[in-house]
Specification:
Blueprint lengths: L4 H15 L7 H27 L3 E4 L2 E4 H25 L5 H32 L5 H32 L9 E3 L3 H22 L5 H26 L3 E3 L1 H6 L5 H16 L1 H31 L10
Helix pairs in contact: 2-3, 2-4, 3-4, 3-6, 4-5, 4-6, 4-7, 5-7, 6-7, 6-10, 9-10
Length: 309
């Protein structure tokens, strides 16, 4: 059966579209997105240096931080770049498929590979697997690797699902389906920063209280990483903090509360980061558990047999 002229024209148009190359990109948002990926790579490098250096710290000019804490800060810096690039692209009305794909590729480095690698290395350095029973050490090492691999896999699935389901309309970005990968990475990074930087200042290093708190954080990390992996691919709703709580007109008291929160974050940086990220992670799950499990069980009517007269 001969093809019609319109079908032939459509096929020629499709061939031209397929062969069309990318000619223009938005420079500033793309540079900030690449900065996101570079910070994730720096976090991996510093985590590797921390495992090799042991107790020594990174020193540059007046900056002196443990390598693992510096890796955590690099993940937080990548998070700031990730927030900024999309905002700039939407403000300048230059959103594109290229920017979205580049953002996801950088996100898998900064919020997928880097947190998993950081968790892996700090556990290997802090636990001292070589000093444990060989059978137990082998089992624990396999579990740590399993947690890291599950986290990376679920982060990749989360980002791919977001690309497919994402809408460019800003009004559609009021909540996330599943825990966002930057928030999941922030949980791991904030706990590592607190363990490496704040805990030695709060408690005497080597004291029983320090050992209990430090071991509680370290041994919880792989289980928490597995939980974060599940939350990322879940269908639990998490609010978009900026779009829900920062945009639009708010009362003056709301501004004062925000200023107070910023002041607390500046003065108590490490505890505030842990409370903020862990609280955000737990809030979505607690809300889902309440409405889907507890409230549903209360609203379910009990079927009773009518009394016979």
């Amino acid at each position: 059966m001969p093809r019609s002229k319109t079908q032939a024209a459509k096929e020629r148009l499709l061939r031209r579209v397929r062969k069309q190359r990318l000619k223009y990109i938005t420079v500033l948002p793309s540079l900030i997105t690449i900065l996101n990926g570079a910070c994730g790579f720096a976090a991996i490098v510093f985590a590797s240096e921390g495992a090799a250096a042991g107790a020594s710290e990174f020193s540059y000019h007046k900056l002196q931080l443990p390598y693992f804490a510096l890796a955590g800060y690099m993940i937080l810096l990548a998070m700031m770049a990730d927030m900024l690039d999309g905002r700039l692209a939407r403000m300048s009305k230059n959103t594109s498929s290229f920017g979205g794909q580049l953002d996801s590729l950088c996100d898998i480095i900064s919020f997928g590979v880097a947190p998993a690698f950081l968790m892996l290395k700090i556990l290997e350095e802090a636990v001292g697997l070589a000093e444990l029973n060989p059978a137990f050490a082998n089992l624990m090492q396999r579990f740590i690797w399993l947690a890291a691999a599950a986290y990376i896999s679920c982060a990749a699935i989360r980002l791919a699902r977001f690309n497919v389901e994402n809408e460019e309309d800003e009004s559609a970005h009021m909540s996330f389906v599943g825990l966002p990968s930057p928030a999941a990475a922030g949980v791991v990074a904030s706990l590592v920063i607190f363990h490496q930087e704040a805990l030695p200042e709060l408690l005497a290093k080597g004291s029983p209280a320090y050992l209990i708190c430090g071991n509680a954080i370290i041994y919880t990390l792989p289980f928490l990483t597995l939980g974060l992996a599940v939350l990322m691919v879940s269908r639990i709703r998490y609010p978009h903090v900026v779009n829900q709580y920062m945009k639009g007109k708010k009362p003056l008291a709301y501004l004062l509360m925000c200023m107070l929160a910023v002041g607390l974050i500046i003065w108590f940086r490490q505890p505030a980061l842990v409370l903020g990220f862990c609280g955000f992670m737990a809030s979505g799950f607690a809300k889902w558990f309440y409405y889907k499990i507890l409230k549903k069980s209360k609203l379910t009517p009990t079927t009773e047999q009518p009394a016979l007269s």
